[in-house]
Amino acid sequence: MLRGADERMRIPIRLSVNGQNVETLIEPRELLLDFLRDRLGLLGAKRSCDMQVCGTCTVLVGGVPVSACCTLAYEARDQEITTVEGLGGDGKLHALQRAFVAHAAVQCGFCTPGMLLSIVALLEQNPHPDREELRRYLSGNLCRCTGYWNILEAVEAAMRESEAEAG
Amino acid sequence: MLREFQIHQPDTVEAASTLLAEYGLEAAPYAGGTELLLIMKEGLVQYRHLVDLKTIPGMNDLSLEGEALVIGPLATHRQLERSALLRQHLPVLAELEAGIANARVRAAGTLGGNLCFAEPHSDPATFLMAWGASLVLGSAAGRRELPVEDFFWDVLQTAREPEEILTAVRLPLRPTTVRCSYQRFRLHERPTATVAAVLELQDGVIASARLALGGVSPVPRRASEAEAVLRDQPLDEEVFAAAAAEAGRAADPVSDIYGSAEYKRHLVAVLTRRALEAAVDHPAGEIV
Questions:
Q1: Looking at the structure, do residues B157 and B226 belong to the same domain, yes or no?
Q2: Which chain B residue shows the shortest CA-CA distance from A54?
Q3: Best CA proximity match to B81, nearest among B57, B62, B67
Q4: Partner residue opposite B103 with nearest CB, options A50, A51, A65
Q5: How many CB pairs lie under 8 A apart between chains A and B?
Q6: What residues in A contact B104, CB-CB < 8 Å?
Q7: ipTM of this predicted complex?
Q8: Core-most of A114, A165, B208, B244, by most CB within 10 Å?
């Protein structure tokens, strides 16, 4: 017997996205990326490789970077999600975003949201990575404009700025 | 868009096993999803039921039980790379975990999922085989324990019955006379070839050696020919070179998108030599 659309399983979930509470019903098969893009209109995370290699769909779940393209929306229940739209605030850019602008670390911009979120998550855990650690960590985020050098420069500049502020 | 399916949230291994038995081929255990969701998205498999093992309490715990370190299969790679207990007792495995794929895969992917999926390029499978780890499988009917070597049957094929669930990875603790190293060569998310070496030393002589090769053939396998070359030999450059050459010669490589058979054979020899040198020079182990 074929099952009709109305018999589809739906799960009530509650989560926070960029600090705002969301309560809704999801289908088990919904991917977090589609949930964010198609249902919440948050277009920062992009679909590209669709297999956890390129990093352009990176979002933070409880501060931890995940590939939204390969994560069920189901896994976001009771979690705090951060997308690139949630960086900065009050109309101002996050310090890392400002450093990206200042160091021309954005070329076509497609990888930028994933780069920013990955780096924010890294610096949260390890505020002073050396260049080798940065390179190794960011090997999981691809920039097909190959603008890696300026991205590394931007991250290090942002780190210096945050140390200066703290110091 | 994925095909429609239901998610089940059992709270015991028995309940999960009962669900898997009830739905048979229409069901799959669901852990981190890093491998499963990929093949579901590709349409290579169609499951109507995913049994979420993450809702079973305690399945990602790490603990010492007697003379063994016991890892809950739902421990993520990220959790393992950061585990103080693992860093203390088996730093080589913690470092191995830190080098898997990328940060996002490590955040979601689990040790148990990695093993049960049985992708031929699995990092932990190879090391666990060389270390002599065992796997505990549970079901509503009972439990059994088997060596890692008996678990992998073929590409994506294991000894796990459909209604069985991996409930523990047991790593015997070894004395400090046992040295180990894990070497990998990778350009992509998965390594092309890997070698794990575990040596037991006695008065400067190799009392026993266990070598395992990964990514080379459809399942990780012991390099028993090279192990024989090492047995009762001194820690000597020439001995290592002979064992490395034998490992490469006796490897049974298959070509895949990560490299040709000949290329892998060469890598096996190089990585074996490095693994032996690193195991001796770095008692705590090191990954290059």
A1: no
A2: B102
A3: B62
A4: A65
A5: 72
A6: 52, 55, 58, 65-67, 140
A7: 0.94
A8: A114
CA distances B34 to A51, A52, B43, Å, are 9, 8, 15
Q: Which two tokens stand for residue B127?
A: 């090391």
Burial category of A105 from C-beta neighbours within 10 Å (exposed 0-12, middle 13-18, buried 19 and up): buried
Structure token digits, residue B158 = 């294991």
The answer to whether residues A57 and A123 belong to one domain is: no
Q: What's this model's pTM, rounded to 2 decimal places?
A: 0.95
At a CB cut-off of 8 Å and minimum separation 6, what does B104 contact? A52, A55, A58, A65, A66, A67, A140
**In one letter, which amino acid is A115?**
M
Question: pLDDT category, B32, cuts 50, 70, 90?
Answer: very high
Average pLDDT (A40-66) is: 97
User: pLDDT tens-digit profile of B154-183?
Assistant: 999 999 999 999 999 999 999 888 999 999
- B4 vs A contacts (CB less than 8 Å): 3, 8-9, 27-29
- Choose the final residue of a domain: A86, A114, A136: A86
